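#onboarding

Welcome to the new folks! Below is a worked example of what a typical request in this channel looks like: someone posts a single protein sequence, and someone else replies with the predicted structure as tokens. Don't worry about understanding the tokens yet, we'll cover that in week two.

Example request:
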Amino acid sequence: MKRPAPIAVGAILMIARVLSGFTLIAFALADVPGFVQNELLDGETLTPDEQLVAEGVVRVGALGYGVWLAFYLVLAWLVWRGVNWARITAMSLATISILVPFIDWWRSGLDISLRTTLLSLALDILILLALSSRAARSYARRTEQAQPPVTEPAPAE
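Example response:
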């Protein structure tokens, strides 16, 4: 069976999501003290010891996010290959990734802009739409065999 466009688009969008994440990591690690001051503290001043701890937290967070993105890249490859559980996992992760900013917006008025969450939110919505199509589902389930219905034996008389 030929790979349908929604599977290809979904996998490509997942790769775009990974690339945007690695771009964020690169910008954060390029200037860790500046990232801590501008993005995390909104200009508040810290003692030198607190600054070192905050920079360490950013580096550990970037490492953890990088591992997560590597897993997501493997998941994109599995989606490309048509593995159904990977497609379902990707859709579940996209749903969670859509709900978290929505809940933050609902509870505290999170600013959704290109600088914050708009790009990842848009990619997640497109991933969800692509991978939930009938063509994507049919392709991912192509190897499953139709199971005959289970019939109960007739009662013995």
